[in-house]
Design a protein that fits this description.
4-stranded parallel β-sheet; 3 helices
Length: about 100
């Protein structure tokens, strides 16, 4: 189900989303969080996507549906930049339990 996937988006579906998703996966493991992180182009994001991470400039240019949790990341290569994302994911999981 797409509501259980963290989507890391970029414009081309190549380098930035792959690098960012790799760092995010590592941070999730460090925090003991189990989550599936998928990369995709922002214009190919599934309609059901509920939790999205991407570079700040990119996600601010996109129009989001109201129920979508969007997390802009300023420095995608900085592991600490994902702390807010991790906190938000944990809060979301607790609310759904």
């Amino acid at each position: 189900m797409d509501s259980e996937i963290i989507y890391f988006v970029c414009e081309s579906g190549m380098a930035s989303s792959i690098m960012g998703a790799t760092i995010l996966r590592k941070r999730l493991r460090e925090y003991g969080i189990t989550a599936y992180v998928k990369t995709c182009r922002i214009n190919e994001l599934p309609v059901q996507a509920c939790f999205v991470v991407g570079e700040t400039q990119l996600v601010h240019r996109h129009v989001w549906k109201a129920q979508c949790h969007v997390h802009p990341v300023d420095r995608i290569l900085d592991p600490t930049a994902y702390d807010v994302v991790l906190e938000s994911w944990q809060k979301r999981v607790r609310q759904n339990d």
